[in-house]
Amino acid sequence: MRFDLLFGILRSRFWLVASIVAVTTLTAIVGSLLMSKSYGAATTVYVDANTVDQVSGTAAFSRETIRNMLASQTELIQSSQVVNRVIKDLKLTQDPQVQADWQKATKGRGDITDWLATVLLKAIKVTSSTDGTTIAIGVEWSTAEGAADIANGFAAAYKAAALDLKTKPAQEYAERFASQVKEYKTKVEEAQTKLTKFQRESGIISSDERIDVENQRLQELSSQLVQVQSALSESRSRSNVVGRGGDMGIPEVVANELIQTLTTDLGRAEAKLGQVSAQYGSNHPAYLQAKAEVQELRTRRDTEVSRVKSSIRTANAVNTSREKELQAAVDAQKAKVLALRSKRDQVAILQQDLASAQKAYDLVERRLTETTVSMSAGLSNISVISPATVPLLPSRPNLVLNVAVGLFLGLFLGMMAAFTLEAAQRPLRSADDLLQAAGIPVLAVLPPSQSTRAQRLIGGTGPSVTPPNLRLGN
Length: 474
Fold this sequence. Notes:
Layout: H1 3-12, H2 14-34, E1 39-47, H3 63-77, H4 80-90, H5 96-106, H6 112-123, E2 124-128, E3 134-141, H7 144-202, H8 207-243, H9 251-255, H10 257-280, H11 285-377, E4 382-386, H12 399-424, H13 431-438, H14 452-457
GO molecular function: protein tyrosine kinase activity
GO cellular component, one term: plasma membrane
Domain Polysaccharide chain length determinant N-terminal: 6-90
């Protein structure tokens, strides 16, 4: 279709198209004004994916992990836990308008909280960023203040719920650790009591020092015993020599100067006695005097030899007794040292039990402290970076958009109506139309006439005129 023909059709049907456009535009305006208004508000929260956990001390997330985490956070925002917290924090069930809407929708049946939770879930739209770690929470509500309050309420409730989910395990761990701390503290006290009681009963305070002293005493006794045993062996040997006779062959007798002097004097006296006996006979006074001198010297020598032999026997008896005493002392000291070692081992076991109990107690107490610090810190990895503000204009209905849609729709319908009427009752608008309709060639084109009848004949804005079947002469 040619542009001039199209323009001609629209120009001839201008009032029809304009009427339809006016009707659709007016309908869009009236409908927009009659529709209930809703306001949109949105808030943006930032989720710090690199926050270190205060309990486990872990961090580091991959991109895939962050996407999964944001998806989980999106589900958390739309969970009943967050929705119910929003309803409770904002006291929405006490809003007269909400109560009226609930009565209208449910006739007062059911729980208003459950109904309102369903309404809120339909009213919010949660979207997460694809490249970052932000989440947008959009709300459509009947009032501007309500939309902003609900959007901010969802952000606050989400932050609180996320913190609860983070600290609740820590709280459970804290309760468990507190119970274990009491248990291990009792074990430490019991182990300390056992150790103290055993040390008091055994008299061992510093086991290493005590055992060192007793070991030194055992070494001293053992050394004395060895010396006494050596002396006993020697004295026993001399005593055996004394028992076999041969007094003059005993080393102590030989080494005794007095005995040797007496033996020498005795030898001289016996020699003198032999000379006197040979010279004077056995009855001479000189012989009797010499004989008495010999007997006196022999008696003195025998007495000294007996004294030496008795001394040897006495020394052997003393060494024997001393050896027995030292042997008994060494045996007793050995038993004492062994007993101390046994007690020291028992003390070491008790000390090890105490150290193990103390170590376990310290570990559990440290974990309890860390968990308590994590709970008291109250740190959240969620921050509101763009709180919702009260919107100035409603988001629906959009008057400008609706008018534009009505305008374009009316223009489209008007054009369709014009084309439809044109196809049903097509007037003559040009020489080409005359040629197509009558099959008669155009001889000339007259200028437009001011006559209404002529205008109708050539296809003006009035009713169409069907061209007559003209017949040319021969």
